[in-house]
C-alpha cells in the first residue's frame, strides 16, 4: 500500500506540472530549453549528493568563493585557489563547480593539468577545454565572453596574476580534521570512545592535512597505547599500519578478539595484551622485529595459533603467558631457537606438558613454569638448554627432574618448592656428578624429601650460596653437605624429623644465615660457635629447645622465643661469658637479638610508647661484678633502617654524652624484623660518667 500511495503522490505532482507553451515559438528551441533545464538540475543534484555531503568543512570555502566569483556581475572574472599539496584545493574547486555549473550555458572541469603539462600536451588540453565548452570539436575560440568565470588551483602563489581574486586554503581546524579522519578511518564521524585518543594522535601528527587524513589513516602510526580501554571489544584492522612498533592493549577487560591482520605488522617490537581476561581469539603474530610478547592473565585465551616471520640475526625475544588459559604451546614458538631468551608460563592451569621442542631454544635464559598445577614433568632433553640460568618449577607436580638437568652448567637458580598443604609423592633429586657448576640458589622446600631424596654428592655444588630445604621429611642430611664452602644461607626450618644438627656444620665457613625454626631440636651443637661468618640465627618455634649454644662473636641477630625463661637464661649466660670483653669495652658495641613477637617481654623494667624512654641506673653500677650494662628493646617494623640515640646524663645535669647508631634489617633474604634487643655495655656508659659522683641517669 505504501508503494501505491507513493506512485499516486508522484503522478499527482506530475499532472500539476506547468508545461511549455510552444504555439508562438520554435519547437526545437523549446525542446532544447527543456533538455538544458533537466540536465542542469540532474547534474547539480547528483553531483551534490555524491561529493558535497561528505566533504568536511566545505561550506566555509563555498561561501567565500561565491563571494569572490560575483556571479551576479556580467564581466569576466578569474579566481585562484592557492595552498600546499594535499590541503584540498581540487576538492574545493570541484565542489564550487558542482554547485554553480548549472547556472552557466556551458561548463567544464579540467583535471590533471599538471600531469598533462609534463607530457607536453598543453595544446591538446586547450582544444579539449574549448571543444567541451562549445560542445563542438572543430571550432576554436580565442576570445573571452562576458559572464565567464575561470577557477584555477596552484601551489605557487607567484603564478597567480595580481588582478586575479585569491582564495587561500589553510590546514583544517582540529574539529574538522578529527571529523574527516574518523569518516575515512572508522566510516563514521564519531568513533568508539576508546579510539578518541588514538584519533587525536594521528590528527596531530598529520597537522590537519586532508589528503594525509583521508589516505594515510594509520600508515605513519608507530605507537598504539589503548591500555585500560574498558569498552574495546575488537582491535583496529592492522593491515594499514606497516610502521607500527608498539602496541599496548593491557587491561582492556572487554576485548574478545585481535584483528587477524596483526601478522602484517613486520616492524612490531612490543605487544602487550596482559589482563585482557575476555580475549578468546589471538591470531598469528609476526616476530621479524618483535622483542616482547605479553599475554599474562589472558585467562579466556585457550589457543595461541603461533608465530610467523623470521627473526633477524642477533635479536632476542621475551614471551610472557603467565596465568593465561592456553592449553598447548604452538610448536612454531620454538622455531625461534637462539632468539627466545625468556619464557614465563607461570600459573597456566591448563598446561599439562611442555613439548620436547622447547629444548631447541638454545638461547633461553629464563624458564618459569611456577604454579602450572597440572604439569608433572619436564622434557628429558632439558639439559640441552645450554644457556639457561633461571629455572622456576615451583608449585608443580614435578617430583622427578630429568637426569639431564645436571648438565645445565650456566644455571644459577633452580626452584622446585611445593605448597605446604599438598599431599605429595616423595621428591628425588638426581646425582650431581660435579655438574651444575654455576648453581647459586637451590630451593627444594616442602618437597617431602625423605632420606635418600637428596643425592649424597650434593656437596659438590661448589658455587651454591643459598639452600632451602624447609618443611621436608628427612632425618639425616647427606654428609657431603659439609663441603658447601660458598654457602651463605641454609634453611632447615620445619624439618621436624631432623632432630640433630651435625657437628661438622662448623665447616660451612661462609654461612651467614641459618634457619632452624619449627624443628624438634633439644640442643644445638657447640660447633655453631665456630661459624666465623654467621650473622643471623633463627630459632623461633623450637619448642623443645632448652638452651642456646655459645654464640660466635660476630653474631648480630637471634630470632627466638624470648618469652621462654629457659631461652632467656641461656641468653644471659652467653652474655656472662662475654663479661670481660664487655666490661673492658670503651666504645658502644651493639648486639641485636630479634623476636617475631610484637610484645616487649615482661622482664624489661622500663616500658612505654613513643620514641624515647628514660631509666635510672642502679647504685654502684660501675662495679663490673654487679653490672654488665643495660639492654634496650625496640618494637617496630624496620623497612630499611632507623637511627637511635643513647644519651647518658650525669646527675649534675651538665655532663652528658650522645651515642648514635643505626638499627637495620641486615638479612639479605628477609625484611621481617619486629623486636630488636640492644646490649649497651658498661664501657660505653663509663665514658660519660662523672668520676666523682658515679651517678648517671
TrEMBL record:
It comes from the Eukaryota. This is ADP-ribosyl cyclase/cyclic ADP-ribose hydrolase. It comes from Solanum bulbocastanum. Keywords: Coiled coil, Hydrolase, Leucine-rich repeat, Membrane, NAD, Repeat. It catalyses: NAD(+) + H2O = ADP-D-ribose + nicotinamide + H(+). Its main location: membrane. GO terms for molecular function: ADP binding; ATP binding; NAD+ nucleosidase activity, cyclic ADP-ribose generating. Its EC number is 3.2.2.6. It is found in: Membrane. It is an enzyme of class 3 (hydrolase). Residues 60-137 form the NB-ARC domain. Transmembrane segments: none annotated. Coiled coil: none annotated. GO terms for cellular component: membrane. InterPro entries: C-JID, Disease_R_plants, Leu-rich_rpt, Leu-rich_rpt_typical-subtyp, LRR_dom_sf, NB-ARC, P-loop_NTPase, Toll_tir_struct_dom_sf. The lineage of its organism: Eukaryota, Viridiplantae, Streptophyta, Embryophyta, Tracheophyta.
